[in-house]
């Protein structure tokens, strides 16, 4: 964060602490992309991601007085978004099936050239693969690979064993490989007619 | 593709997560704005405000009762004024004295008028002269007894016999009511029948009556922590209480207390041995728990006044931990803070010792208020974090007594 941005954000934080709606909107818009990038990885769809993000911003606005200015506001927002995504996961755990993509993807896909496929995929496509994972796999994969949690921490957060966390990660990776393979197959088909 | 190494796969998704740039959607803010509006509206009815409103309601109720109590001519005030004198058999300068002075004046006036009618020539200072000496109701009684006339049917407090003797009947709670004066057969004037000095004088605790059960609602702030005097925030307790009056001095009490405990712990929070080898030990754990507390207490009234009681309570409580929410906080910002929440996982039967000291004030025969500072000390480790969590505060209680006509023990 540049000094100018920090000053701007600090002013917005002060305004939000006074519940100034205009400052809340500015802060929301300023951190929108950053927050949605976090939330979208934990959600099945963009709508669900927006719901998580807005719940996260609600926490940001209601707890903003607790923010310590010496800390990174980005880091604080990120933590809140991840925690909100985990709350969302826990809240909906009863309704989430642990289905994986085995049934959705053909298992005997021919191996292709990964580099070619990946180079043609957009970031959005790749994030879309993560969204297609089952909720548990998606959450474990995000926490471990992208957000840097340990298996012990994941086990603690999701109330599962460390072994289950490791197993879920392995299955998440396997499913992502299959999705990439599937994507490659479709791309290949486009070019071969 | 199936053989892409874990590390490469992870890098691919990390890059995508970093590089992905979703577009801003204005409708997202509109939804957020509506959410903020709803929260602002509901915020007024938040738990804290609910308790504030409830407390204000209780306070208003109390003030109303007290004002009613002090209203001239109200039965409550009469009972308040007469009761102490009754118990001591000695009516002094307070309200009872005023009442009897008024009564005396009315009786005096009536007697004068009767005398005038009976014997217009007789000096007005005859019988009423004696009455002028009255300083208290006892004297009223004595003097009227000495008089030749009499008053009939002064129910309860003032009675007369056929010989026309008027007297303040007995003392204590027997003195309960002076309904009206009616002319005696010896020719007392009919105007006296209209004299209504007091309609009802109701003692706070009439003889032969004592509460058998009491029900009550209570509110208390809750300070919870590991070390006495070190508290991170204020929770609250809402209670429904039931008391069984075993005797005048002993009471058994139980009920249901919904307790919101807020506390912070630097050391001692240990969900299970070895946890801090598995995950980093937090610098602070913020706890917020909803606990259902079922107390079983014995109360001893060590000081009994006419309207006041001072008491001691000892007993045990069972904790049913409904919701436990913990926030692991790290000073090191590279470590994520985390929330942890469990429901209905821990219960502690008869594992908390209750000690309290209280004061109860009887507003009327059936209503009373009490204030009761308390401390709850655990005899076992409480909750997920296995903490020696004590709680303290002061209950403000409004009680309703279910009267049973029994002889006082």
Q: How many β-strand stretches of chain B?
A: 10
Average pLDDT taken over every residue of chain B: 73
Low-confidence regions of chain B? 73-96, 122-195, 197-202
Q: Kindly report how far apart the N and C termini of chain B lie.
A: 91 Å
Number of helices of chain B: 8
Cα shape of chain A: globular
Shape of chain B: elongated
Percent range for helical residues of chain A? over 70%
Approximately how much beta-strand content do the residues of chain A carry? under 5%
Distance between the termini of chain A: 48 Å
Structural class of chain B: alpha+beta
Q: Write down the domain tally of chain A.
A: 2
Low-pLDDT regions of chain A? 97-112
Mean pLDDT of chain A, to the nearest integer, reads 81
Explain what you see.
The complex is a heterodimer of chains A (193) and B (409). With 193 residues, chain A is an all-alpha fold. Chain A folds into two domains: 3-94, RNA polymerase sigma factor, region 2, helix turn helix motif (Rna Polymerase Sigma Factor, Chain: A, Orthogonal Bundle); 98-192, Arc Repressor Mutant, subunit A (Orthogonal Bundle). Helices cover 74% and strands 0% of the residues of chain A. Chain A contains nine helices and no strands. Chain A has helices at 3-17, 21-42, 46-63, 73-91, 114-120, 123-132, 135-146, 151-158, 162-192. In chain A, helix 2 (21-42) packs across helix 3 (46-63) and helix 8 crosses helix 9. Chain A is globular, with a radius of gyration of 19 Å. The N and C termini of chain A lie far apart (48 Å). Residues 97-112 of chain A have low confidence and may be disordered. By secondary structure, chain B is of the alpha+beta class. Helices cover 28% and strands 35% of the residues of chain B. Chain B has eight helices and ten strands. In chain B, the strands form two sheets. Chain B has an eight-stranded antiparallel barrel with strand order 3-4-5-6-7-8-9-10. Chain B is elongated, with a radius of gyration of 35 Å. The relative contact order of chain B is 0.10. Residues 73-96, 122-195 and 197-202 of chain B have low confidence and may be disordered.
